[in-house]
Write a structure and sequence with these properties.
By secondary structure, the chain is mostly beta strands. Strands 2, 4, 5, 6, 9, 10 and 11 form a seven-stranded mixed β-sheet that branches. A four-stranded antiparallel β-sheet has the order 1-3-8-7, with no helix packed on it. A hairpin with a 7-residue loop joins strand 9 and strand 10. The termini are far apart.
């Protein structure tokens, strides 16, 4: 069993900051990549950012220079620091973790339950 719990969302004014956290726990052999997706009302879920086991990062163009992803491998945790928030960043943010539960198992993806981020103008 693997659990992924994300947290840290809230209501913030435009220009403000929030920090999201995501912890993976349970039967984990290794974590490959961790990332954040978001889904705004009426829109498809989209990739915001990801970080792999080599600490290589990837960002959506809309958040480059404002958001920063980081991970603590010892704690199986990934963070998303969001600065200069805009109303268009309003969405439910989901953590996604790609991991193995056994060395010989394929990589599987697990989702957090989502955390709401609301940016007021």
């Amino acid at each position: 069993q693997v659990q992924v719990v994300d947290s840290g969302g809230g209501l913030v004014q435009a220009g403000g900051s929030l920090r999201l956290s995501c912890v993976a726990s349970g039967s984990i052999f290794s974590i490959n990549a961790m990332g954040w997706y978001r889904q705004a009302p009426g829109k498809q879920r989209e990739l915001v950012t990801s970080i792999n086991s080599d600490d290589r990062t990837n960002y959506a163009d809309s958040v480059k220079g404002r958001f920063t992803i980081s991970r603590d491998n010892a704690k199986n945790t990934v963070y998303l620091q969001m600065n200069s928030l805009k109303p268009e960043d309003t969405a439910v943010y989901y953590c996604n973790v790609a991991l193995k539960t056994r060395s010989y198992y394929p990589i599987q993806r697990y989702w957090g339950q989502g955390t709401q981020v609301t940016v007021s103008s």
